[in-house]
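Re: your question from the hallway

Yes, I did run it. Sequences:
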Amino acid sequence: MILQLITSFIAAATFCILFNAPVRALVQCGFAGMVGWMLYLQLDAKWDTIVATFAATVVVGVISQLFARSFKMPVIIFSIGGIIPLVPGGLAYDAMRKFVENDNNLAIQFAVQALLLSGAIATGLVFSEVLGQMFRRKNGRST
Amino acid sequence: MDSTSSNSNTSTHDIIDLCLLAGKIMLQSGAETYRVEDTMSRMAASLGFPGAHSYVTPTVIMFTTSRTEPVKLFRIAERTTDLQKVSEVNDISRRLSERQITANEARERLGVVDDAAHAYPAWVQIAAAALTGACFTVMFKGSLWDALPALFVSGLGFAAATYLHRLVQIRFFAEFTASFLIGLLAFFSVRLGVGQEMDKIIIGSVMPLVPGLLITNAVRDLMAGHLVSGLSKGADAFLTAFAIGTGIGLVLSFF
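Structure:
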């Protein structure tokens, strides 16, 4: 469990280096990724993967908005770090590999799952944005 | 057009160019389509063109300010993810809207942002990719013994992808070769007894290359109603996943 905490923190932070996030945002990126991944792991054990991904993304989105407000940087910097562990890159790769190995049934299963998961992540991000907007009507511009 | 009187020192063409430059930087740095359109029309509105229209796809920006001006077009060839640039252009456009800086200052600052290189040197990026690969191997329930080879395999794979991409301008080829290399290295590390599960090493090591974010952005664009952008980003992501899958599949077919 602690191993998962540490690795998800490092993975999210280092991924943000690849995406050229500012140095002073890296710790927050790692934190968002860690929270998202831990929540996902906990929920995934009980509920459907899609529900777990959605819930984790909403929380990551809200955290990113809070970070964005207090550190005066756009939400996207933190939310990308947060969703990186949740994004179904591994599944997309799995699907492609099954296609290449001529196992089409399994491949299509994986591909549909990857698509649904990215749909859940996208919905979660939009949902958290809506939540954020509802809490701050006055300030107008959403960064 | 009395609405332009506040910016009488800059001509309409300059303003269009300014908005296009901002849009170009954002799109090249991997911002979402709606953010690019939003930023461009906000900048135009604050410079006296409230009715500006833009049409943004991953490969082209079209922008017009009024019925009398011709539409200007900008072609985007290369796209990466660069959060720093997205954030800086965002900042410049916000300051411009709040009239903290003038159009000329905004142009100067955008020029600086456009020319800026990646903030991290190449070796830091490769080290970051290596760490990412190792951590993802553990997160996908691989053992710590698999994380060690994954550290080297993913670092080498990312380095190969970067340098090959600089060498040949075809992204598919660079990704294909890099993932082929990853597959080979993972196979040999298992064969030599350094790692245990080849699958876990591979899946962790390809994570810096896989287009997970692109897929999510594609779905997000689709939901926002940007159908053309969404579909073309999806196709882009599919091609990348295909390149990686083929590279790994080729290795698996050998052994």
